[in-house]
Amino acid sequence: MKERGLLRREINALYSDVYKKIINPKRFDTILSALVSTGLIREEPYDNDHRLRIYFAQVAEERVGPLDTGTMFAESIVLWES
Which residues pair with 53 in a beta bridge? Predict the structure, then answer.
């Protein structure tokens, strides 16, 4: 089964849907960098356009079972609320 990652614009759209506001781009960069550096998410070049980055959640699937990445990001996006 292929992993489902999210592009930056998809994460932004989820945040906007949940909180009904947009996140400051500078703050968004800081949050993504922190999540990548702590190993909570993984960042890779997007297959179709290497200028874009795609983000994958880092979870132990064998412990929790398969996850819908979009749902997981939507539920954990509360971590980004200031």
Answer: 45
DSSP state of 49: -
Q: Read off the amino acid at residue 61.
A: E
Give the span between the Cα atoms of 72 and 30, in whole angstroms: 20
Q: What's the token pair of residue 25?
A: 């781009």
Q: How far apart are CA 59 and CA 52, in angstroms?
A: 23
Model confidence over 9-29: pLDDT tens digits?
Answer: 999 999 999 999 999 999 999
Please state the pTM of the whole predicted model: 0.65
**Contact call for residues 73 and 26 (beta carbons, < 8 A):** no
Q: What are the DSSP E strand ranges found in the chain? A: 6-7, 41-45, 53-57
Q: Which residues pair with 42 in a beta bridge?
A: 56
pLDDT tens, position by position, 51-80 = 999 999 987 554 444 555 555 555 554 444
